[in-house]
Amino acid sequence: MKWAVVLCAMMALSECFIEVPLIKGKSAREKLEEQGLWEHYRLMYPYKNVKFQDQSLYVTGQQMTNDADLSYYGVISIGTPGQSFAVIFDTGSSNLWIPSVYCASAACANHKKYNPSLSSTFRNSGKSLSIQYGTGSMTGFLGYDTVVVGGLPVQNQMFGLSQTEAPFMAHMAADGILGLAYPRLAASQATPVFDNMMDQHLVSQDIFSVYLTSNSAAGSVITFGGVNPNHYYGPINWIPLSDETYWQITVTSVTVNGQIVACNGGCQAIVDTGTSNIVGPQADIANIANAVGANSANGDDVVNCNYINNMPDIVFNINGQAFSIPGSSYVRQSQYYGCRAGLSKSNDSLWILGDVFIRQYYSIFNRAQNMVGLALAR
């Protein structure tokens, strides 16, 4: 694909790898703010992080949050000849799905739709798929086809074709989702895309890595098959996974100005490119917001835009290392709604280190050794 870059280097963690550029488009929140519809939308579709709340659903359906702040997506193609789609590369889920020509929902009207009749390599699996959102759901069926990611042709990849989609999807820039978590999380026993990449020997190393920038024009990439030293500096801190379903790690504590404000005694967190904010239990997030000087308003933690550079770091202590997030990284600025902290409350005990965290730390997902590597992003 024209969007892919093949890079080779004589370094221990690099060798040859594929980089797929990620576009930082306008989030659903930003689009709705521009139209003056955000408050109406927020009340109709309140943020609910449902990814991690009912594991019994994993057998039959994939779960996903209705996160209005998601903004990073990349381009893949499906079929022969290829049909192109913008997808969110999501380390918090394991299935690939895109809209289909059989979808009549309003959410599908402004997205690209896959037409299986135009692909000579498509096969229908005969299985259905259901994805549960915070409000509404996506339903469809599963098929097989060739999926090309960064020029890598993944043969016989199972993926979902939507037939109905939740209304809030209409406001998202991406057409669908490409999950990069472990097979245990996949609906209908579908083999995830990266697992097929490894099985089909398409990558030189069983590693992919993510580099996110705040620049909407260019810079963000997902790298398959290695680590690009141009995207980070300093050492890589390797953290063993505490569970091999999500990219889950143990956090010792969260501190602000040297004081423990959350995760006292330790907690579990996942590194998740499919979530925009840092998400944690309600009381803990409230403590963090209070410690950095944020005030609650209309469901957001609002801060004074003039004080961003003076706000304290939020520090995640992980595996003996301190990972600091400065105010300039965890505060979002909007010309319509001022400044707010990139923090979200959940009813679940599992923390999520989303894009707010990943923009600060180049994140390496190592399937060979079941570890996450974190290094300061350039």
From TrEMBL:
Tell me the InterPro entries matching this sequence: Aspartic_peptidase_A1, Aspartic_peptidase_AS, Aspartic_peptidase_N, PEPTIDASE_A1, Peptidase_aspartic_dom_sf
Q: What is its EC number?
A: 3.4.23.1
- Disulfide connectivity? 103-108, 263-267, 305-339
Q: Signal sequence: where?
A: 1-16
Q: State the UniProt keywords alphabetically.
A: Aspartyl protease, Digestion, Disulfide bond, Hydrolase, Protease, Signal
Kindly name one Pfam family recorded for this protein.
A1_Propeptide
Per its record, what are the GO molecular function terms? Answer: aspartic-type endopeptidase activity
- UniProt domain Peptidase A1: residue ranges: 72-375
What's a BP term from Gene Ontology annotated to this protein? digestion
Q: What class of enzyme is it?
A: hydrolase
Q: Name the domain of life this protein comes from.
A: Eukaryota
* Active-site residues, as the UniProt record annotates them: 90, 272
- Name the PANTHER family for this protein: BETA-SITE APP-CLEAVING ENZYME, ISOFORM A-RELATED (PTHR47966), PEPSIN A-3-RELATED (PTHR47966:SF22)
Protein family per UniProt: Belongs to the peptidase A1 family.
Q: What does this protein do?
A: Shows particularly broad specificity; although bonds involving phenylalanine and leucine are preferred, many others are also cleaved to some extent.
Q: What is this protein called?
A: pepsin A
- What organism is the protein native to? Umbra pygmaea (Eastern mudminnow)
